[in-house]
UniProtKB/TrEMBL annotation:
<keyword id="KW-0238">DNA-binding</keyword>
<dbReference type="InterPro" id="IPR009057">
    <property type="entry name" value="Homeodomain-like_sf"/>
</dbReference>
<dbReference type="InterPro" id="IPR050109">
    <property type="entry name" value="HTH-type_TetR-like_transc_reg"/>
</dbReference>
<feature type="compositionally biased region" description="Gly residues">
    <location>
        <begin position="239"/>
        <end position="253"/>
    </location>
</feature>
<feature type="DNA-binding region" description="H-T-H motif">
    <location>
        <begin position="44"/>
        <end position="63"/>
    </location>
</feature>
<keyword id="KW-0805">Transcription regulation</keyword>
<feature type="region of interest" description="Disordered">
    <location>
        <begin position="233"/>
        <end position="253"/>
    </location>
</feature>
<dbReference type="InterPro" id="IPR004111">
    <property type="entry name" value="Repressor_TetR_C"/>
</dbReference>
<keyword id="KW-0804">Transcription</keyword>
<protein>
    <submittedName>
        <fullName>TetR/AcrR family transcriptional regulator</fullName>
    </submittedName>
</protein>
<dbReference type="InterPro" id="IPR001647">
    <property type="entry name" value="HTH_TetR"/>
</dbReference>
<dbReference type="Pfam" id="PF02909">
    <property type="entry name" value="TetR_C_1"/>
</dbReference>
<dbReference type="Pfam" id="PF00440">
    <property type="entry name" value="TetR_N"/>
</dbReference>
<feature type="domain" description="HTH tetR-type">
    <location>
        <begin position="21"/>
        <end position="81"/>
    </location>
</feature>
<dbReference type="InterPro" id="IPR036271">
    <property type="entry name" value="Tet_transcr_reg_TetR-rel_C_sf"/>
</dbReference>
């Protein structure tokens, strides 16, 4: 049993006052809906109980508190992101990591008000276990040894989650605030005096690019760096290709 999980014998399926039968899945559905509508403050046992038509204490048969609900919600998002993704032995490792990154970013964009809460948590649940297993497996396929694969996966997923949470936070802004931030690059930054900001003046025509998002370029930069380290390791080993898993490799700087 994962740490913090409620024993099965305590999770009895009882109907609420409205006749709804509680379950972990139903509670997570409700939590996602509440946060999507009202923001992170809606993720409380009291508000969940009200929305589900039950005494809040009934939720403690399934979760130990609102933080455990958050972990279950986060794991649900990971499951949504990774659904149907099972790179086979013939899948190029870089293409596999690129697809993982795209899926995480897309899922966070679909749930922007929960993304900032979810990005930095460790769920200790099955969907996260499978995602980490898949990502590290792709890096071992690139030829990195066990330790290096773990270090590089940490750098990869932190980069992906950081950008995904940042873009999701932008999407969660009120529309007028989002428009004002995006317009800054075509308005406020264009009016700055050349003498005070010479470097900005030199690149002024390109400053609107700052509003287009940096997720995809950041992923490509990281994948290029990983590929370069794999090539360097292959050259150092003299085998003409990346080191086999568990038999040497590059170290993280």
């Amino acid at each position: 049993m994962a740490e913090g999980r409620i024993p099965a014998e305590r999770r009895r399926r009882r109907p609420t006052k409205t006749g709804v039968v509680l379950s972990e899945e139903l509670i997570v559905d409700c939590a996602l809906r509440l946060v999507g509508q009202h923001g992170p403050d809606a993720l409380s046992v009291r508000r969940l109980g009200t929305a589900l038509g039950c005494d809040p204490s009934a939720l403690y048969r399934y979760f130990r508190g609102s933080d455990e609900v958050l972990l279950a919600v986060t794991d649900r998002l990971i499951g949504e992101a990774m659904a149907g993704f099972a790179p086979g032995d013939g899948t190029d490792w870089a293409a596999g990591l690129r697809e993982m990154a795209r899926r995480v970013h897309h899922c966070f964009s679909a749930h922007p008000r929960i993304a900032a809460l979810a990005a930095y948590r460790v769920t200790r649940r099955v969907h996260e276990f499978r995602a980490v297993d898949t990502g590290i497996g792709l890096l071992r396929r690139a030829g990195f040894d066990a330790e290096t694969a773990v270090r590089h996966y940490a750098a990869f997923i932190d980069t992906v989650l950081g950008h995904a949470a940042l873009d999701a936070a932008h999407l969660a802004l009120a529309p007028e605030l989002r428009r004002a931030d995006d317009a800054a690059w075509t308005q406020a930054y264009q009016d700055l005096p050349d003498g005070s900001y010479p470097e900005l003046a030199a690149v002024r025509p390109h400053l609107p690019l700052m509003a287009t998002g940096s997720f995809a370029p950041a992923v490509e930069l990281l994948l290029s760096a990983l590929a370069a380290q794999a090539r360097e390791a292959a050259q150092a080993s003299g085998r003409g290709r990346g080191p086999r898993p568990g038999r040497g490799g590059t170290g993280s700087s």
